[in-house]
Amino acid sequence: MVLSADYLVVGSGLTGGTIARCLQDAGCEVLILERRSHVGGNVHDHAHPSGIRVHTYGPHYFRTGSERIWEFVNRFASFFPYEAVLKTWVDGHNENWPVAGSYIRRTIGESWQPAFQGAPTNFEEASLSMMPRPIYEKFVKGYSEKQWGVSARSLSPTLARRFDVRLDDEPRLMRHKYQGLPIEGYADFTRNLIQGVPVVTGCDYLKNRTAFRARKQLIFTGPIDEFFDYDLGRLVYRGQQRVHEYLPDIAYAQPCGQVNNPDPANGPHIRTLEWKHMMPHTFAHQIRGTLLTREITTTPTDSDRYEYPFPDSANQALYEAYRQRAAALSGVMICGRLGEYRYYDMDQAIARALTLAERVLEEQQTTC
Ligand SMILES: Cc1cc2nc3c(=O)[nH]c(=O)nc-3n(C[C@H](O)[C@H](O)[C@H](O)COP(=O)(O)OP(=O)(O)OC[C@H]3O[C@@H](n4cnc5c(N)ncnc54)[C@H](O)[C@@H]3O)c2cc1C
What is the tens place of the pLDDT at every residue in 46-75? Predict the structure, then answer.
């Protein structure tokens, strides 16, 4: 039997969920297929037996400067204020991340200078154009090389745009106007996002292509290379292995939710998360013990474990070849972080999905 709908949305993450919501709200017939046992994609969270809420696929700090996106997400969840503050474990101490100006003045001297001048051609030079070399080596080099598994000198300078040096010691990771976490968690938020839209979970569309039919459009938010059976080659991703440790007799083990671990001599993990910090304090304080998660970066081959697109020109060229093939298909749109082989923050993924949904509705000139 073939199951059909006007719009078949493959993937129930923020991209698929937002597009499905918009199409359903416009009166269209939509069906979502999701290969995992849960909806919500990578922002999903779950409860540890202790009651501590864990972000299943790594910590997700919601932030946006956009009124439109903030209003949109607040339709589906109430958020409590949460402004992520991170530390980096350096020389046996938790130091601010991004690096504080006061730390550089204390350890290097009042008249410190960035170690690189000119136009950076790689990530190391871009980082050194912000800070002295010893600071780069303690805070940035080890972290980035764990993250990407290659020398920092072989990485793109654009990656350094994701951090800065805080001359004013501002400790918050981000300065966006709206920052928070859903009070009832991301799983609840994403279930509400797609409320009323029919969903089939535990169903891999690519393994069941002939069982489903999109009468108007297929919206595919899974990996683009997998969609084409990898026939031009595989796009490289980095992912994380997560090792959890529950400490029943300790209320809190670290000063904040995330402590980075750049020094390879201090273990292979890239960072340690303590989830209680990411819960409303009134709930967190009632919970016995604490849960730590250490993340160790890997290069996954299982597409369900893909996290960060590898930032180099070879992969961009391969993605571009797949993108052109996708563009030639009629009635198919491939999008989202996996479909566009691109890192999107959550607010960016939602904004992009809202734009794509508008485009679908305009192009089809449909009243559904
Ligand atoms: C480790 C990590 C930490 C992050 N932290 C932050 C953060 O702090 N703040 C922030 O703003 N953003 C963060 N992000 C980004 C955030 O995760 C993304 O913006 C978001 O997940 C994008 O949603 P998506 O729907 O495009 O992709 P996904 O969430 O991956 O959804 C795709 C869905 O498609 C399904 N699927 C794939 N193939 C098939 C198939 N063949 N059949 C059926 N279903 C299929 C998948 O199972 C998945 O559910 C982080 C990302 C990572 C990797």
Answer: 999 999 999 999 999 999 999 999 999 999
Checking DSSP bridges between strand 86-90 and strand 93-97, what pairing results, if any?
antiparallel
CA distance 129 to 119: 9
pLDDT digits (tens, 9 = 90+) for 164-213: 999 999 999 999 999 999 999 999 999 999 999 999 999 999 999 999 99
| 16 CA → ligand 1 middle, Å | 10
Of 176, 159, 183, 203, which is closest to residue 76 (Cα–Cα)?
183
310 contacts 236 by C-beta, under 8 angstroms: yes
Q: Where are the domains of the chain?
A: 3-83+177-234+309-364, 97-162, 237-298
- Ligand 1 binding pocket includes 344 (Cβ within 6 Å): yes
The token pair at 9 is: 């949305």
State the distance from the centre of ligand 1 to the C-alpha of 190, rounded, in angstroms: 12
Q: Are 166 and 98 in contact (CB under 8 A)?
A: yes
Task: Report the C-alpha gap between 22 and 218 in whole angstroms.
Answer: 15
Q: How is domain 3-83+177-234+309-364 classified at the CATH fold level?
A: Rossmann fold (3.40.50)
Kindly give the number of the ligand 1 atom that is closest to the alpha carbon of 206.
41
**pTM reported for the whole predicted model:** 0.97
Backbone torsions φ then ψ of 239, nearest 5 degrees: -140, -175
Query: For residues 120, 124, 129 and 134, what is the CA-based torsion angle, rounded to 10 degrees?
Result: -160
Q: Is the CB of 191 under 6 A from ligand 1?
A: no
Beta bridge partners of 79: 182
Would you state the structure tokens that stand for residue 341, as one six-digit string? 């082989």
Phi, psi dihedrals of residue 353, rounded to the nearest 5°: -65, -35
